Amino acid sequence: xxxxxxxxxxxxxxxxxxxxxxxxxxxxxxxxxxxxxxxxxxxxxxxxxxxxxxxxxxxxxxxxxxxxxxxxxxxxxxxxxxxxxxxxxxxxxxxxxxxxxxxxxxxxxxxxxxx
Length: 115
What we know:
By secondary structure, the chain is an all-beta fold.
């Protein structure tokens, strides 16, 4: 399946808002939600999407295996979203959910030499 980079505009950025927490499959919180294809435990993380003069908090679902080490609030990240499609009552629906295959930490740019 295709990977789609989210936030393609140069002014768009994502920043970690909260640490990931487990996503549950039931209201009683006795069953962890898992990825249908891989069986990986699903986590929910809040990211801030920032562009120009606005910021929006988004809750993103990510498999535990798609979370990098060292993730903490305030760090800039990029994410890769998964397109989805389904047929319901004979009609095709598709789009991009707030679900990502993975989140990557952005590496800081190397410092310029002070010569």
